[in-house]
Amino acid sequence: MNAIINFDLIKNEAPTAWKDFEGFYSQNFNKLHFLSGISFEILPFEMQLGIMLKYFTENAVEVDICNNDFDTLPETFSDTFRTYEKVIAHYS
Question: What is the dihedral of CA 78, 12, 3, 36, to 10 degrees?
Fold first, then answer.
């Protein structure tokens, strides 16, 4: 079973955080040979998970994945993007 993140929802509800994430992905991962030119959205969920964890860790945003089962992780990340959107707005 493959978990699926609703990226359209994230883009609509957390546009600034998503744009920041896209910059992070382009700068850190899209330049890797095996990911060159590949959209983040089409990567397998497990790769997305790792990249998003790195992004949130580098931005000091806590993501609780240990207390969630695999099926709820997509919503966990949607919630985290919405929360981070508020943090960005507060400091902007």
Answer: -110
